[in-house]
Specification:
The complex is a heterodimer of chains A (275) and B (301). Chain A contains ten helices and nine strands. Chain A has 275 residues and is α/β, with parallel strands linked by helices. Chain A has a six-stranded mixed sheet with strand order 5-6-7-3-8-9, with helices on both faces. A three-stranded antiparallel sheet of chain A has the order 2-1-4. The radius of gyration of chain A is 22 Å and the shape is globular. The longest helix of chain B has 27 residues. The N terminus of chain B is likely disordered. The chains are: A alpha/beta (275), B mainly alpha (301). Chains A and B meet through helix 1, strand 1, helix 4, strand 4 and helix 5 of A and helix 1, helix 2, strand 1, helix 4 and helix 7 of B.
């Protein structure tokens, strides 16, 4: 232990930024998420260019020449991101499409393995979103139960939350019908109601969720606020900069997989808007 | 002690200090977000997710036939039609039925038992690769997916077994006390299927071509498993090792076991018990271990 702190104090001058953030936030508490030189590499299939488009003869030649599959491209989505998040932080992540925001979020949630570097967390960060577990052929009722179990709830928790989820989604009697019969707004409301039914230590929110009519938007922003208060740390990805400015105390600007700027929301947003 | 020093030098040389972050993490007891849990912890997590596994399996079964007009009736119709097709081909056209007593029962038993394993292998291979979005959105022990797929097949087997027993009775075989052993052999086969499903799930997750290859593998397996013919009749002239390999084939073993109970009305030989038990235990241990070894890598592909 002594060795560790000693090592840290030697290294500290090298990283004034981290040190400053640590002392600044000392009353707010301890680090909850540490992202250390994180690299994420995706393999994408079926991304062949026109010139090397697959036919059987080409595929055979490639095997003979011992080349890799051209359809398989590697995408380096996050390139060496490091930061420390503290208890009570609400961190906004902004950046253009394809800048690696969602990928970073998934890596923090422990859902994408790092290519290099590491993510250290306190407890299990959870991504707000169960969409992938739901099945549109099934009734809303079955989907609520399925979604709750997918998030790791117990049967008694599911029973306790069921009515609340139905009420919050406001879909009423439609809960008896298959989700494929829902309007897109109703589907989005039910999905948000299910995924926000669980409390989390570290909460990761990917925008897309706050959809629906104005009334529901207000309700869901309220819910996100509550969840932020209950959670230790919140990460929020959004294109809507107003939401970020309202809810976050720190902003990370990602550009092409790297941190372009990090710090106070107003400063970063101002720079982002100029760029 | 030399380790931190050299790491420090490296960090200073690089102009940044990743080690300080790792040390900070260690100081506050933060853990890596992705780390493969130990085997006992993994089993415990899997047990905690039992409700998800069951609900997911049932939901998939319900949604599978929801688009068709006959709906859940297909759960019964599919095995019936399968048996009818094979009976037409091998019983009527190819004339196997003259050599084997009560050929319809013989054939249907083989088809039903083999289908259970075949479908688990095929769906197991897809269980990870077709659920990537789920894997990338939620945190749960990944073995829950192949397990759910196997449970789904087990639920389908319930219907197939009802059809099978009915047909066996219709073809004139009596109900006997040996039927009490049916759950035992199904349990052994289920355990074998779980292990095989887990094994195939990892193969299918990292070898994209597996899904193209599998139909040929399972068909070869089908022809080698004595579904349409009696293995010991055909293997009499073969060299010893080949005969041994054919009879040690797990699918053939489970099929023969079931035929002993339903058609021949005899208590299965010790050799059959040993083979069935061995494959169940072997597949479960190997499959589970093999799947668990790559736990943290699913979802990258």
């Amino acid at each position: 232990m002594a060795e560790l702190t000693e090592e840290l104090s030697q290294v500290a001058p090298e990283k004034p930024q981290t040190k400053k953030a640590e002392t600044h936030n000392s009353k707010a508490g301890t680090p909850t998420v540490i992202v250390d030189d994180l690299h994420i590499v995706y393999k994408v299939y079926g991304a062949a260019s026109d010139a090397e488009k697959g036919n059987a003869a080409n595929a055979l030649m490639r095997i003979l020449r011992r080349q890799g599959r051209p359809q398989m491209k590697e995408v380096h989505a996050v390139k060496g991101v490091s930061f420390v998040a503290y208890h009570g932080d609400a961190i906004g992540i902004i950046g253009r499409n394809g800048s690696g925001k969602s990928t970073l979020l998934r890596a923090i949630a422990g859902l994408l393995p790092p290519h290099k570097g590491a993510v250290y967390t306190n407890g299990q960060p959870s991504l707000l979103g169960v969409n992938a577990a739901l099945m549109k052929e099934l009734t809303g009722e079955r989907n609520i139960i399925l979604g709750c179990y997918a998030m790791g709830m117990t049967p008694s928790e599911v029973r306790a939350k069921y009515d609340e989820i139905v009420d919050f989604s406001g879909i009423g009697d439609f809960v008896q019908f298959p989700m494929s019969t829902y309007s897109s707004g109703m589907g989005a409301r039910l999905r948000f109601a299910i995924s926000s039914a669980k409390t989390h230590d570290v909460l990761l929110i990917d925008e897309a969720l706050a959809t629906g009519d104005r009334e529901f938007k207000r309700k869901s922003q309220e819910r996100i606020k509550q969840m932020r208060e209950a959670a230790g740390t919140v990460f929020l990805v959004a294109h809507n900069l107003d939401v970020i400015e309202e809810t976050c105390n720190r902003v990370i600007w990602l550009h092409k997989g790297k941190i372009r700027m990090e710090g106070d929301p107003q400063e970063v947003l101002e720079a982002y808007n100029k760029a | 002690m030399s380790q931190p020093e050299s790491a420090l030098a490296e960090a200073q040389g690089g102009g940044r200090a990743p080690e300080s972050l790792a040390a900070l993490a260690a100081r506050y007891g933060l853990r890596r977000a992705i780390a493969r849990p130990s085997m006992p912890a993994y089993l415990r997590q899997l047990w905690d997710r039992r409700h998800f596994i069951l609900t997911y399996a049932t939901s998939r079964n319900v949604s599978k036939y929801s688009e068709s007009m006959l709906g859940q009736l297909w759960q019964v119709l599919t095995p019936l039609l399968n048996a009818a097709v094979y009976w037409l081909m091998f019983g009527v056209i190819l004339g196997q039925s003259k050599k084997i007593e009560n050929y319809p029962a013989f054939l249907i038993t083989g088809v039903m038992v083999f289908t259970f394993t075949q479908r688990t292998v095929i769906s197991g291979a897809k269980s990870i690769s077709s659920n990537l979005s789920l894997i990338r959105a939620l945190h749960f022990p990944r073995a829950a997916l192949p397990l759910a797929y196997t449970i789904q097949e087990l639920q389908q087997l319930g219907y197939s077994m009802a059809v099978l027993l009915l047909l066996v009775l219709v073809t004139g075989e009596p109900v006997s006390a040996l039927w009490l052993l049916i759950p035992v052999t199904l349990l052994m086969q289920l355990v074998f299927n779980i292990g095989t499903g887990l094994f195939m799930a990892r193969l299918g997750a990292f070898m994209r071509d597996m899904n193209q290859l599998l139909p040929f593998i399972t068909r070869t397996w089908l022809y080698a498993s004595g579904v349409f013919y009696a293995i010991n009749d055909r293997t009499r002239d073969l060299p010893d090792f080949l005969r041994w390999a054919l009879e040690f084939n797990p699918a053939a073993a489970y099929i023969e076991f079931m035929r002993d109970l339903l058609i021949y009305q005899r208590f299965p030989e010790r050799w059959a018990w040993v083979t069935c038990l061995f494959w169940a235990v072997f597949a479960l241990i190997v499959g589970f271990w093999y799947f668990w070894r790559a736990e943290e890598r699913y979802g990258r592909g």
